[in-house]
Structures are given as C-alpha cells and as structure tokens.
C-alpha cells in the first residue's frame, strides 16, 4: 500500500516540476544548473528543488520531444548541456499552464469558498 | 535503444559539471571550498538514484523483464534437456502435420488458378453424371448465353511430338477457340490460339507450347516461334509459348502443348466434334463482370432445358452446374476436399493431443516447482509475473517446435512437389511447393499451442498458498489424492490418440484388402504395352492389320504364354461407358436404357492373357467381322442386371444405335474404373468387328521381365519405327495409379497413427513416472510396513489404468464413428471390422504396458531402507 501512495506523490511533484522547467526554458536555452537556480530565484527561494531530481525530469521531457538538448559552453567557460524548448514543448506549456490555472483556481475555491 | 545509450553516456559528465557549478556558487557566497563541495552534493541528492531514474526513463521495463524470462526459460530447459527435447519434438511433429496438410489443402483447394481474375473462371459440369460434356453442348452454351465473356472446352490428349528428329510422347490439350480468352493470360512469346484457329477442321495447323516444354524439349530456343514440328505425323507450326507457370488449367496435370480442337479428327483418328452423346470434354468459362452466380445458373438452366427439348434422344435430362475449376470440377475436387478436410481434422486432433500431452507435462513440472513458486510469491513476486514466466517458457518451447516444424514441412512439401507418381499421365504435385505464408501459419499455430498448454497450470499457480507449499516441502499432500487436471488431460489425450490409431488401422486393413482383392484380371506376370496408332497416322484397316501382325509376332516370342490386345484395359483410367438397352427396346433415349456398362474392344486371346476367367460361352474370334452378326462377351453383373440370371449366353441386348448384340460368353466380374467401386457391368466386344487405333497389348510370360520388355519393344519398332510407345512394362506399374489414392490415404493416416501412438506412450510414461516419483516416499513406507507388491502397484498405478482404459474406450468409439468418412477412399474400409477393433485394442494395450513398464519396475524395486535414509 505504502508504495502506491509514494508513487502518487512523486507523480504530482513530477508534473509540477515539468511545468516549471518548461516555463523556465521559455526564456531561452539554458543548462541544468541554471534551471535549478532560476526556479529557486523566481519563486523567491520558496521552492527548493532537490537538484538531482531535475535530471530525470529533463530526460523525460526530452523523450516526449518537448525539449531538446545540445552541447554548449556555460558563462564560466565550462562544457555543459543546454536545454531548449521545442515547438511541441511550447504548445504543451500552454496546455499545462491552463490546466494548472484551473487546478489552482478549483483548490482555491474549495479552500476559501466565502470569497 | 541507441538513443538511450547516447543519452546515458553524457550523464556522469553532466552531473559532475552541475555539482562543480553549484560548488563554485557556494564558494562565491563565501564558503570554504571543502564545505562548498559537500553542500553542493547534499543539495543534488542521491546520484545513484537519479541515474537509476533516468535509466528507467529510457528503458522498456517489460522488454527487459521479458529478456530475463526468456533467459530463465532457456536455462530451465537447458537443465532438463530430456524434457526440452521431448516437448520440442512432440510439438514440432504436431505443428508440422498441420502445416503440411494445410499446405496441400491450400494449394489444391483454397488457392485459385494462377490466371488473371481467377474468381470469374469456372467450369460447367453435368449434374448427376461424370465431369464430361460434349462439344455441341458447349457450343450451345457459348452461342446462347449472355452471362459469359468466353466459353471453352478442352480434352487431354497424348501426342507423338516429333522435333529435331526425335519423337517424344507428350501430353497436351485440344482446346476450342475461346480457351485462351477464358484463361486470359498473355503469351511469353508469339501468340496464343485464337477463335480463327478453331473455325473449321484444318483452319490452321498451329500449336502453342508451355514454357516448361519450351525449356525442356526445345532448349529455350528464342526463335521457336515459326518452327514446324510434327504432331502425330502432321506438320504443325509453333506460334507461341505460354508464360512461365502456366501448364493447363488442371492443377495436378502438367501439359506441354495446346492445339486447336477443330483438328481433332486428324489427331484422334475419328471425329467426335459433332457428337452429342460422345462426352469427352472438360469445360471452362469466364463469367462477365458483375454477373452473379444465381444469374448464371438461371441462364444455364434455360439453355439446357431448351437443348434437352431440342435433342430428346441424346440430351434428355441435361443439366449443367457451376463448379470451381482446377480439379476436374466437383468430380475430383469433391472427394479431394472431403479427404483433405478429414485429414486436416486428424492433424488438428494430433495437435490437440500434443498440447494435452505438453499441458500435463507442464502441469506436472509446475507441481514440482511448487516450492520455488511459493518462495517467489513469499518474497513479493506477483502471480502474474510467475504466470508470465511460465508462459514464456511455454512459448520458447512452442516457437522452437514451430521452427523445427517449418523445416520438416518444407522438406515434406518440397519432396512432394518434386515427386512424380508412377503413371504415364502427366500428374505431378508442383502446386504443393511450400509458400512463405506457411511460416506465418506455423508461427500462429505455435503461439496458440503455447498459450493452450502454457495456461494449463494456471489454476495451480493461482491457488498456490506460499505458507502451505513451503511447509509441506514441495511434495504437496494433495498430489496423490484428488483427480488433477493432468489426469483428465491424459485421458483426453489417449482418447484422441485412439482416434488416429483407429483411422490408421482402418485404412491399413482397407489397403490390405485392396491389394489382395479380385480385380477380375491378374496383373502379375503380365506386361502391358500401350500406344495409339493414330499417332503414327494409321486408321481403320491399317491399324487392324498392324495389330494382328503384332499379335502374331509377339506370340512367337519364346516364353510368352498368351497374348492379346484391347483398346484399353480396366483400371487404366481410360474407359468408355455406354447405355445398354433390352432387346425389346424401340426408344433409345437415355432414360429408357436398362443401365450403363463399361465397354472394351478386345482381340482373341486377350481374356486369357489378362487372366480374366471365361465362365461360359466362347472367346471372341477373328471370324467375328463387321459382316457377321454382332457379338459380345459380358460379365456376370451385366447378365444379372439384364436377365436377373447368369444364364445369358445366346441371349441378346441392344446398344444405343439400336443394334442387336448376341452374348457369346460370360466372364467374371472385376474392377473397371476404381478399386473402390461397387460391382459394375462390363461388355467386351470383338475389336475385329470395329477397328480401334488405341492399342493395349497384354503379354503373359514366364520369362524375366527386362528381357521380355526389350523383345516386345523390338517387335513393335520392327513393325514401324514411328509408333510412339506410351508405356511398356509390368502391368502392375500401370495399376499403381489405381492404388494411388488408397496408398496416399494409408501413408497419411499411418503417419498420424504412429504419431498418435508416440504421443500416448510419451504421455502415459511421463505421467506414470511422475506419479511414481512423487509417491516414492509413501510407497517406501508402505513396503517397510509390509505391503505386498500387488497392493503397492494398485496404489501407485491403479488410477493410471483407469485413465488408460476409459480414454481408450472413448477413443475407439470416436474412431469408429469418424472412420465412416474413410470408406469413400478406402475400399471396404470399416471400423466395425473385428480384426480392426482387435488390432486397435491390442496396440493400445501393448502401448500401455510398454509405457508403464519402467515406472512399474521402479515401484517393484523400491528399497525402503535406502530411500527413507536419503529423504
């Protein structure tokens, strides 16, 4: 039983993380570390991503064809993989954002019915 | 897969870079380098788990598990090579039987003729009588219909083909003008025969040869078109070559040459083109597009009833029906379809028995592995995963079996395709060449078989209780007490095997009877020489003169006991049938006839040479001439049918022309068309009263066959070198064709029977030894406590005997019921024959004894001290 609950929680987190990654890449191709930094910075450090979990998510997105990876050089002249949003990913981001807005709205309505 | 590898390769590097960047950030924030590095690693998390997760993103988990299962299955089979070998062998034989039978069925029955739009091509055949039509009948259909785009008829004919100075007997077709319109093929070279070629006798002396004849007889000469050859001494010009693969429109015949039917009189020696009652042709029609079968049939009915009204004497009761072409319509196609369907059923039974056999083996193995399965469940494996693993094992076996079966089937079908039946007819089985689609079939059967026997242990797995299984140490307490699925499977399997064994014995018995049956003549020590003098341009009197000279010369050869000739011999496939009328008849319509009889034209001495006993009256004589009163010798059946008595010598009957014929002698009954026919009427007319160019010389001899064959050949060629001898050899060789269907049936059913026997031995032995080994410990205790050998045996194998007995009884009953189907092919085949029943019962009993002998001796030699110490 316990395995099942765990899996559900992971899936929920994964979905959210995917959305955040896609949103971050909207600004242009960046490398993995920069994505982690950007999520932390944009959320005013509220969302602390366990940086390792970023990578399985990135690979999943590549497999689905929503983002692509290419070799490049980072700002401090290090070799790094840069991730770029694909056209398909861009469409997906719109869909996912829409879904997220609905979900957030629905939850907000349940939590604060009076308003 | 490659993408996965590429993605995984850079991963380590990426993670190192990531941590290095984070460390750099931390240092910039003022941490000491060492601490900055640890903080970065903490923040990253478990590297191994991350890598594992990514690997999962790129992997196909089920595929990897499948590979694992296959490896495990192969390992299990490798550990138990005896089991693996038996299982694969059983399955390979079972699948091969099905693939072979289906291959033949598909080629012979299911596949259409290899011509364009084959679904529009049909044959017309009379209802309620042989497959033959007459030329005027087909002309009436051709000229009076609106539903066919072309209508043709044709006759098989053997020709003496003289090319490049050599005369060869070849088989060909006399075809009517629209034949190649019906067929619809395009010539490989030159042109095909056209309507104009068949317009009137002598319209054009042209011939078309088949691709294989072009290759074989003419060395693929590219300038063949325009060459002149001689066919039965008449010059013909070759105008075209058919495309490769076309060799006539009968599947089992390979024809070399096609000539216009209009010229038949010059080729056959007499004219039948305008005769309505001489029915010797097969028909072939092409239906117009968009016309339905019922429309065609309705129009045929209109035409035939009109023709029947117009010619009441010859065409009374004429009715034509549509039939699939390729196997002489329904005439041969019907029995062939019936037999193949029967054999297909047997093959299915064999496969089912093989599956039942493997199923019980699998169930027994699963029971043996109860402990292993229980442990795997106890440590968290799902039942589905375990079942899947067993299924994979079943599939590995069934796919291996299927692959072996493919090889076997290929060999068998290629062998069949390359085989020439022992006959002068152009029969072969080239059509049976294996098709790649059969691989798919074998694969499909393998998968289905795998599922069927792989799922048999299903219940065992789902009811396994890990606690119980582990406690009882793998030897389940219930194993010996209840009727398990495998017991039922064994009984079912034995019943199925009994069906095949019964069928095999029935056909063996039938073959035995056929080989020793009274044919009405004695082919032993007799040589048969056949040729047609019309092929050397002889007619009437000249042929008669030649034949008499031949008879005189051969009877002088030392060692010849007697000799004689006829137009054709019984069971040669070449027969003529005509109506017999009573002496009082004045109306010679078919419906007024007394019965139909086989007719033979014979010379004096033929009956003695053939060994046909003359029971009363006299032999024919050369003093019977066209000027003396017509006489005939008839068989007993003829006399019985006409006079209800065998005292017929001196009495009269009339033929279809109204001529009175006196019966001069009575001969014994025999077989005339097939060996499985009921007694038929036959009449033998003096050939000296009506000359016939077709010659079958029978020589009874005491001398060595080879010497005699060359002596006879010398005599014939000395008389005229141009006579193309079709056949010269022991009479038995020619009869081989008559015994061919029954031999095929016996071989096919015998193989299935042997296979059934093998399966039941394997099944019984397997289960008996399994039962014994399961209960060896219990038996040892019983022996130690003083049980007698008899008690031990009945405890160990009593149930086996019940299973064997009940399975056999059910199987024999089923076999008896199914064997009725066999009687169509096998003369006097009957499963009610006590000899057959006794043989089947004995075989099954012996099989049973043989297969439990090993386990029995093991039980009897139990050494309790040894065994109990070991366990």
Task: Provide a brief overview of the structure.
The complex is a heterodimer of chains A (115) and B (871). Chain A has 115 residues and is of the alpha+beta class. Helix content of chain A is 62%, strand content 14%.
Give structural attributes.
heterodimer; A: 115 residues; alpha+beta; 3-stranded antiparallel sheet; globular; B: 871 residues; 5 domains; 6-stranded mixed beta barrel; 6-stranded mixed barrel; 28 helices; 21 strands; 52% helix
Which assembly state applies to the chains in this document? heterodimer
- The tally of strands of chain B reads 21
Helix/strand-derived class of chain B?
alpha+beta
Number of helices of chain A: 4
Pattern of helices and strands of chain A: HEHHEEH
Termini separation of chain A: 38 Å
**Low-pLDDT runs of chain A:** 1-12
- Largest interface pair: A-B, 21 and 25 residues
Report the major sheet of chain B: 6 strands, mixed, barrel
Which radius of gyration of chain A do the C-alpha atoms yield? 16 Å
The counted number of beta strands of chain A is 3
**H/I helix tally of chain B:** 28
Order of strands in the sheet with the most strands of chain A?
1-3-2
